[in-house]
């Protein structure tokens, strides 16, 4: 695989950064964690290095001409972040105009860096069980997180590289469960991919019932704990159409995590309030941030602007999301325009915003929306329960909110709109449209651009397998439809 091009750096982060220790692991065919890692501290450093890779600009990080695949890009591919012709230097237009081919470097980088995270998770798992006799609880804590990371990243790859999540016999993605950069895996099927993601997550959850210590402490939840696993499972089951399971696992999270008070909601986006967060990917000074390819406050450039139709959908006087997500800011010429400020800065840097702020990868609000949609779409729909969840979320966000009662398609439309309003620029919109199915999905920008629509039958709903990957590994064929061989 293309992973062989990478050098896997196991970098110490977080509370271990003061140790200033780095393990440089070259991708050699004889690499063996049994030789490299002498104790559980080494495995823990490897795990921390795995988490650090989520900051890559092809994953949650953002910079010009990098995919930022799982943060703002899904909104650029869809209709919530629109190219600003006055400030866009051409970055990401290959995505927002759906011009990508199998030779697109940014797609290759997204593929390669996602599998790099998986490879490092697999290195972390390699040989760790030999320490079980000495400290089973700590082994379980490290192993569970590595399994959860491996499952999440495979799921994220599936989201882009599979055309129809419900076509179980269609080509899926390669599932890598060991580190071996020489292996040449086949794709498997969509159903097989979902089964392996599910198994890794359920195995991780089971291990988390027997650990030596909690995964997260006070403050921002920087690591994936059991609630994080439950949240990922709920999201995965929603995509898969397993609505009863989506309800079950989202409920575990909802019952454990309350909403933050409306008065401090904006502080979530400044990393000064953590109450309703489940997993937040840390970005600190010098590490970039998750939204700079949409709005870079340090250089006053807004290459992608929030869709005016979306902004008009908010109760701007009473909805706390309005002022937390959007703001009027001057461009470099002193002209004021609306921009996305969700990722503007941490609280301490607001006077001189730099775009460095944590990425909120999992939040309880998404779980309410997952459960609402699952209730509404279940074989035996419970529309009252779906409406209860939708009303609960709105009441947590809007001063003076009065409950509504909706049914049928009106209810489904309301849930979809609420997902847009709550989760804008958090990595969901393109996939939410895609989940509607191969006949109902559509990107419709309502005449707001030169290339405004992506029809349901377009092959662009799935990304191409990188050409270099196919050249290196013919076993990965077939290529996705529309992109050649």
Brief summary of the model shown:
Helices cover 40% and strands 9% of the residues. With 485 residues, it is mostly helical. It has one domain: Serine Threonine Protein Phosphatase 5, Tetratricopeptide repeat (Alpha Horseshoe), CATH 1.25.40.
Notes on the protein architecture:
- This protein is mainly alpha-helical and 485 residues long.
- It has a single domain (2-267, 361-476), classed as Serine Threonine Protein Phosphatase 5, Tetratricopeptide repeat (Alpha Horseshoe), CATH 1.25.40.390.
- 40% of the residues lie in helices and 9% in strands.
- The strands form six sheets. It has a two-stranded antiparallel sheet with strand order 1-2. A two-stranded antiparallel sheet has the order 3-7. The protein has a two-stranded antiparallel ribbon with strand order 4-10.
- Helix 6 packs antiparallel against helix 7.
- The longest helix is centred in the first third of the chain and has 30 residues, at 132-161.
């Amino acid at each position: 695989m293309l992973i062989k091009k990478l050098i896997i750096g196991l970098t110490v982060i977080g509370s271990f950064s003061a140790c200033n220790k780095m393990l440089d692991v070259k991708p050699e065919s004889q690499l063996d964690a049994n030789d490299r890692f002498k104790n559980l501290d080494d495995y823990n450093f490897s795990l921390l290095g795995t988490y650090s890779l989520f900051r890559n600009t092809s994953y949650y990080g953002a910079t010009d001409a990098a995919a930022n695949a799982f943060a703002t890009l899904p909104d650029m591919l869809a209709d919530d972040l629109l190219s600003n012709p006055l400030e866009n230097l051409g970055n990401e237009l290959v995505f927002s105009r759906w011009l990508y081919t199998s030779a697109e470097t940014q797609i290759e980088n997204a593929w390669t860096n996602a599998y790099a995270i998986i490879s490092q998770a697999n290195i972390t798992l390699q040989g760790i069980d030999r320490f079980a006799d000495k400290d089973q609880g700590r082994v379980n804590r490290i192993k569970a997180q590595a399994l959860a990371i491996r499952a999440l990243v495979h799921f994220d790859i599936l989201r882009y590289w599979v055309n129809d999540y419900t076509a179980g016999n269609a080509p899926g993605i390669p599932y890598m469960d060991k580190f071996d950069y020489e292996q040449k895996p086949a794709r498997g099927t969509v159903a097989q991919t979902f089964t392996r993601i599910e198994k890794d997550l359920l195995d991780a959850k089971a291990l988390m019932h027997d650990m030596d210590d909690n995964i997260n402490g006070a403050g921002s939840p920087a690591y994936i704990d059991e609630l994080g696993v439950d949240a990922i499972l709920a999201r995965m089951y929603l995509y898969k159409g397993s609505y009863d399971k989506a309800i079950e696992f989202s409920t575990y999270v909802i019952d454990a995590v309350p909403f933050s008070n409306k008065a401090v909601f904006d502080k979530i986006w400044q990393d000064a309030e953590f109450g309703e967060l489940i997993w937040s990917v840390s970005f600190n000074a010098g590490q970039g941030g998750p939204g700079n390819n949409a709005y870079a406050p340090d250089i006053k450039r807004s290459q992608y602007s929030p869709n005016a139709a979306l902004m008009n959908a908010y109760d701007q006087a009473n909805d706390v999301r309005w002022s937390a997500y959007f703001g009027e800011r001057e461009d470099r010429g002193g002209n004021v325009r609306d921009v996305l400020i969700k990722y503007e800065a941490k609280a301490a840097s607001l006077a001189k915003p730099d775009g460095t702020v944590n990425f909120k990868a999992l939040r309880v609000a998404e779980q309410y929306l997952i459960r609402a949609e699952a209730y509404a779409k279940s074989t035996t729909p419970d529309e009252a329960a779906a409406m209860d969840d939708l009303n609960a979320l709105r009441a947590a966000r809007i001063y003076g909110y009065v409950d509504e009662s909706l049914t049928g398609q009106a209810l489904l439309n309301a849930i979809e709109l609420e997902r847009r309003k709550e989760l804008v620029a958090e990595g969901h919109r393109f996939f939410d449209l895609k989940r509607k199915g191969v006949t109902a999905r559509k990107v419709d920008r309502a005449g707001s651009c030169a290339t405004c629509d992506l029809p349901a039958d377009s092959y662009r709903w799935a990304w191409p397998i990188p050409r270099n990957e196919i050249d290196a590994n013919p076993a990965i064929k077939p290529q996705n439809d529309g992109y050649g061989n």
